[in-house]
Amino acid sequence: MMIGNWLDIGPVTQIEPGTARTLPVLGCEEIAVFHTMRGEFFALRNQCPHKQGPLSQGIVHGDVVTCPLHNWNISLRSGKALGDDEGCVPTIPLKVDAGRLYLLRSAVVTRAEAA
Amino acid sequence: MNAPVNFERAGLPGNGRERLVVIGNGMAGCRAVEEILARDPLRFDVTIFGAEPRVNYNRIMLSPVLAGEKTFDEIVINTPEWYEDNGITLVSGDKVVSIDRETQSVIAASGRVEPYDRLLIATGSDPFIIPVPGKDLDGVVTFRDLDDVDRMLAAADRGGSAVVIGGGLLGLEAAHGLNLRGMKVTVIHLMPTLMERQLDEAAGYLLRSELERRGQTILTGANTKEILGEGGRVAGVRLEDGTEIACDIVVMAVGIRPATALAREAGLEVERGIMVDDHMVTSDPAVLAVGECVQHRGTCYGLVAPLWEMCRALADHATGAPTGYEGSVTSTKLKVSGIDLFSAGDFSGGEGCEDIVMRDAARGAYKRVIVKENRLIGAVLYGDTADGSWYFDLMKKGEDIAPIREALIFGQAFASGGALADPNAAVAALSDDAEICGCNGVSKGTVVKAIQGGACSLDTVRSTCKASASCGSCTGLVESLLALTLGGEVQSGPKTLCKCTSFTHDDVRRLILEKELKLIPQVMQELHWTTPDGCSSCRPALNYYLLCAWPGEYEDDQKSRFVNERMHANIQKDGTYSVVPRMWGGLTNPRELRAIADVVEKYDAPMVKVTGGQRLDIFGIRKEDLPAVWADLNAAGMISGHAYGKSLRTVKTCVGSEWCRFGTQDSTGLGVKIEHMTWGSWMPHKFKIAVSGCPRNCAEATIKDFGVICVDSGYELHVGGNGGIKVRATDFLCKVSTEEEAMDMCAAFTQLYREEAHYLERTAPWIERVGLQYVKDRLAEAGAVERYAARFRYSQQFMQDDPWARRAAGEDAKLHQHLAEVRPFPTAPKPQLENA
Q1: Which of B258, B490, B653, B709 would be B293's cystine partner, CB 3.0–4.6 Å?
Q2: A5 touches chain B (CB under 8 A)
Q3: Minimal-distance CA residue of chain B relative to A68
Q4: Fold of B648-799
Q5: Contact criterion met (CB < 8 Å) for B196 and A63
Q6: Which chain B residue has the Cα nearest residue A15?
Q7: How far is B574 from chain A, CA to nearest CA, in Å?
Q8: Which residues 65-94 on chain A approach chain B with CB closer than 8 angstroms?
Q9: Rounded average pLDDT over B643-650
């Protein structure tokens, strides 16, 4: 369902706190949607800037996810690699409204429409 | 009940004043009028419309009214006399239904039309009602005005149970009030942490424990599915997971929404709230708005403090001396007697933010301040909120805290102490008989004497004088004393578990048992973790330590597990998984091989490989397909091989006496028995076993964690081998004469390793650290083998449950399924060119 520029991706309860779930986008990069232990939600491209590991499968602590492949720590807030590592993964603007999650449509489908 | 108040003032036409009409007789509307009157009492003719049939009262004090700590009269802000004395027309109990901006007038429900020169919208907010079946039943109330409180009090008089939906500030205050009034209260909260907008997980845990101690039932991560009714009245609540809670009243306190309907219908610019500029002017210059109904610089506020600042800016503007409002830093205190809780600013962390955390388990206190670029930007205090206002002040002023940073967390008294701002100096200033360690009653003099007597590390101080050896909250003080007494000669202590704690792996394991800690957040609180919810190093370690310490009791925490253990398969570099079914002792049969071949074809697995552990690895399976793959393998009798876990991997065997001309014992049979005994056990690290039928050692038992080499006279048992990065041959542990003894020793050794090694420490480095003799001594103690083996077998009762079968049956399906799939609208097809 779509309201204006925001893509409704369903209720917040679909994602357990401290975990992430994936959202494949036909013709574009898969998105990982995170729910932190503190109850915040974030959406990032599901690819570590290091070796493209699936960030959705990492351990979530604070507002950081640790990539399951080589333990890079990625800030869920900025998409930037933390510590000595350098790199950045694109983030997708997300909002929570009345218990549902919305992603900014243009950020979700950029590639396909540019192609 | 309060009678409607309606003070009509004789009109004074032609007095030349502007007509100011205020919609909303609440805290914001009245405060704005007060501020205007204070600046220019003769400027406006004021008319205030209020939907509630009473004078203005302090809405945030409704909680104490509910709790019986205050009466309504005590929370009235503006008495009837105030309206009269200031010549204000109050139209109460008559709701404004529309605004006509063309003719500049408002129309009330009674049909009354009131013209204005300036209009002030202060409609506040409405409680958010979650759209579940049963929300309109009799007995479902919100917590917004005095009528709601009256309804709750009436219910409390009848006794029984209440369900409060929403574990935020308002919900918890409602729950507290109803609890004090004698009702049995259950709080249902969607998020994992109570008051998650104000608290972090650690403080939320403390709050929850305290509320539970007071008799409330707290359900977090609970989603209300339906409110159940009986004859039109509330009878209970059903959660999404099927749980039903019987109750006589449901308080809906999940949040508020700016009340914007009037403004929206009048064509004013509205997003979440009514859009206002820094002078609280809406998109129509004649219309002002203030309070919870507005959106200022993208923010809607639901607290009282910003309201005062907005009203000041509004009045300055309305009386011709504009100053402007720049947004508010807000702070929260929970109004529940006996619970000290303070939160302010931004504590969500982020780029460049640093946490400073102090926990005092003995007092149940937790303090966390968040610093960014030498400015304090947030604070969460639980148990000791004395410094809340000081932190809030630092935050609002944006003061540079660099000079007091070291002492910041200790509070104002400490940080403002000039020379004492250096924690070492503060400790130096303590007298010799000042108590350092409260748990063990150790004074400063005693600690200094111990250090002078040769204890030159934290660990040796702990072992010689017991200071900091129990709860650890005085560790910082002891470290300061070490630094003061020895100058630069302090030996850095043993490696801590991770950077979140000052405790070592051994300390943590010991304290989990001593203090009977049974949950990860509990360990973090009791052991003074310096981060709110740990890191990717300590979470899996704590999960294992708790699992090992409390078999059958501790519930495995999936989100603290590495991906492979959470997905029960091995992640590969492309994000797909490899799947290794168990082949007992390396044996297989046509049925299993057929099932594997079928899986490979059905799921188009690009590769199958024979592993070093004598089984088959199927590569390239997508996470969505894993449960189906497992169902197929289960159907052929195969279960998880745990090739992915810090757990028992395989038991490698040679063919032994049944076929081999050199074989001395049934090594294959023993290997299969050992694998049946040990499979599924979680360990500090991966654990491999092998059984060779003769000293030729075809199963390579001397580079395994536990190796058996069969000889004519019995079984030689070897431990601590490793074939990985650093090859290590096993140490000889002992020789036994029967299979049973070999199995018992295997179970006992495994359990000793499980209970004492550090997380992610293989048996090889563990034995090098503690010494082979130590392992031998522990197992040689009277009855030790039986005790350890019994503990291992007890724990195995809970471990030997095939995780693949559970997943194939639908458990944790969310881990395998995508949230959804996005198929963007196809773009217009490019014109096809025909080939020439």
Answers
A1: B258
A2: no
A3: B563
A4: Sulfite Reductase Hemoprotein; domain 1 (3.30.413)
A5: no
A6: B814
A7: 7
A8: 66, 68-69, 71, 73, 75, 77-78, 80
A9: 96
Does A38 contact chain B (CB < 8 Å)?
Answer: yes
pLDDT in tens, B396-443: 888 888 888 878 888 777 776 544 445 566 677 677 877 677 656 677
CATH superfamily, region B340-421: FAD/NAD-linked reductase, C-terminal dimerisation domain (3.30.390.30)
**Domain B427-548 of CATH type 1.10.10.1100:** yes
Which ipTM score applies to this complex?
Answer: 0.88
B30 is in an annotated binding site: no
- CATH superfamily of the B563-645 domain: Sulfite Reductase Hemoprotein;Domain 2 (3.90.480.10)
Instruction: Give the CATH number of domain A2-108.
Output: 2.102.10.10
pLDDT at B356: 84
Q: State the smallest CA–CA distance between residue B792 and chain A in angstroms.
A: 29
Distance separating alpha carbons of residues B397 and B655, to the nearest angstrom: 78
Of B393, B389, B381, nearest to B198 (Cα)? B381
DSSP-based three-state secondary structure for B217: strand
CATH number of this structure's domain B6-125+258-318, picked from the four choices 3.50.50.60, 1.20.59.10, 3.40.50.300, 3.40.30.10: 3.50.50.60
Q: Phi first, then psi: what are they for A31, rounded to 5°?
A: -110, 140
Tokens representing residue B98 in the block: 């529309």
Cα B578 from Cα A33, distance rounded (Å): 24
User: Are residues B559 and A71, on separate chains, in Cβ contact within 8 Å?
Assistant: no
Nearest to B480 by CA among B437, B438, B427, B435: B427
CB contact under 8 A, B348 and A24: no
Give the span between the Cα atoms of B627 and B619, in whole angstroms.
15
Q: Are B683 and B690 in contact (CB under 8 A)?
A: no
Tens digit of each residue's pLDDT (9 = 90 or more) over A40-94: 999 999 999 999 999 999 999 999 999 998 889 999 999 999 987 889 999 999 9
Whether B533 and chain A come into contact, CB under 8 Å, resolves to yes
Mutation for testing the A interface, residue in B299, B822, B827 having most A CBs under 10 Å: B822
Structure tokens at B183: 């009702």
